[in-house]
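Obj: model holo form, ligand = protoporphyrin IX containing FE.
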Amino acid sequence: MTMSKTNVTVPLPYILFNGVRHAKDPIHLISKTLNVYDTSTYHLKVARSKRMLTQDPEIINHVLQKNHKNYVKSSIVTDVLSKYAGKGLLTTNGDYWLKQRRLIQPGFHKHKIDELLTDMNAVILSMLDDISAKIANGQSQIDALDEMTRMTLKIVSKALFSSDITDEQINILKDGVQSLQEITLKEVQSPMLSGWRKLSGYQRRSEAHLHQIYELVSTYIRERRADPDPPSDLMSMLLDARYEGTDEGMTDQQILDEILIIFVAGFETTTNALTFCLYLLSQDAAVLQKLKQEVSQIKLSDNPSVREVMGMRYVTQVISESMRLFPPAWFIDRVALDDDEINGETVAKGEIIALYTYGLHRSPDYWSEPDRFDPDRFSAENKHKITANTFLPFGKGPRLCIGAQFAQMEMNLVLYHFIKRFDFKLVEPYQLELDTKITIRPKHGMPMILTPLA
Ligand code: HEM
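Output (holo structure tokens):
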């Protein structure tokens, strides 16, 4: 392992020059900068604002866990993203965040997830039936990204509202969440163009998408408040939850915000992880064969348990390895409340910090042949060799993804059923390019030819 340099400051002209050249590919620019300056952490000064980027696992652990009290979500998330996605778990800090996290956490407890699995399983089977029907009707090609989007939206909607959403509603949710990512990034990257966005109608179009989501979710909340015999789902959990030591629950606005956040944080990340996973499998016959073998030996019941689903060892390894290579949350943001020092690296009060998961997951300091898809890294025999804090797809510390177990169950079940049901191959020629926003996803979808297995 190389000894990392500390306190490297990248000169502004370098960033300005390269930033313009690689504006559409920030991952390339960041990786190149780390390489050029031969460091795992660098600082930048843009006007009066200070920024730091790091893929050093000790620093990342310090920020997320050891001294987490000094590091909160930056205004990119708490002011800009929250303007569109609402003030929910992902976008708030301090006492309010803690109060909400304590209130909502029990809804994601293992036994609650267990209760959701039967419905989750049924949704997956019915979505795969839909794909089979498309193929039977002569559709030769499907877009795996699109199908996974529909799948994860249906799953999270069912878990939240116990109801099946329509295709029209799927489009509303999909467009709305994509709009809010885009508009947040535009506000952060080019605040000076906000007047132009208003004039050109861009702002109005994005807000109209979002308004449709607010309407949709508000209707669900109104209907549920009036339901004398409500089902047991995440929405009921949110409505019934009471703040510690009080008889007080959340207002409709708070519930709307939290639901929106669960959508924003929950469906696109899972979609992207599954799509990248299918891509990697389509490129590796040996791994796919091993996966098929495991899947063929397992017969899940119609109401699987968390234990059963997590027991699918190789399926879990394949998902982990896909998220190592393509972590949907490719960076995690924070801001320092006060000056700090971590192993000689100085952090200034107010410095905005990007914890660069994508680089960490591919660092040759911690992973041998880091770009190779090798699910055996996560096998029972090899797992213990992974250096601490070098694999963080769900983050770490008090703000660890609240939906991690939900997502893991969902991805395992989708992959298991998909592999059992179809042979698949990528439509070539295909060049994987990343669409790098708050999450990463394949820029040109994922065209595949599926052959149903008997
Ligand atoms: C593969 C799928 C997923 C990935 C990679 C992922 C990743 C993450 C990461 C890295 C964080 C931490 C961000 C930070 O520390 O700043 C996070 C937070 C969060 N995630 Fe996930 N997530 C996934 C799925 C889900 C699902 C399915 C849900 C809900 C059903 C969800 C809900 C949330 C929420 C509410 C937070 C904010 C937690 C807090 O700050 O207290 N996520 N997620």
